[in-house]
Batch of 2 targets.
Target 1
Amino acid sequence: MMKQLFLLAAMCAISTGSIAKDLPASAKPMTEAERIEILSGNKIEGIFYGKNGKKAGDWIVEWNDNGNKIAVVTVTGKKPAKKTLKWEVKDGQFCEQGFRDETMVCGHENTYFKDGNTCFTTLKDSKFITNEFPC
């Protein structure tokens, strides 16, 4: 949060129903190079949304330089869940294990967007936000 990532989209399986939170019209797709720059070696805190468009919880992910990805996901009202996963840059693509199924996924075309200093993830080819974080 899911086949995707990272992190973020893999953190929460979210329906794309019409009641989901919409991606801002001004948000632009991010390039793979932008994703690599924003995530590699950084610690980021964000939020994820449920299919009703309301905040469903928080997450903190740290993509350490040693290839470890430490993710802590807290569903609203529940105890945090923590996992140590892997990430790497391979053939110019950002690759990482997803939180739910721990499958390594490379490339995130049409799932990462940026609007000013805010980044968003969506499900593939979707306009509904799954995650939101500062970038």
Target 2
Amino acid sequence: MVVPGASDLHGATHQALAEALAKHGRALLNEASRLEAAANPGLAAPMITPGMIHDAETLQRIGYAQSGKAADRRNWMLGSLAATFVGGFFTNNLTEPWGAIGFVVCGALALAFFNKGSQT
């Protein structure tokens, strides 16, 4: 693939551009494959069309497709949910020192996990 103006770049800069384009291309192809799998009922051979590539690029550009992040996001959110449930146990024992400390710790963990999951 030729990018206008890329030949004028320094060697390391040209290499960084090539790596970024390859990474973007892999993500774009993965998203197009996902779109194809959703459109293909399984009776025909898989075929990615130019329209699917365009749609995948549009979805990535506007932020709907964030490849490779769903599992990490899910795990952080599950951690937040688990900390919330465990915090419920400590809520029943807020009058005890260990209950109050456990509640605060679980609340802080839930907020930290949720924040990390939101940024992933």
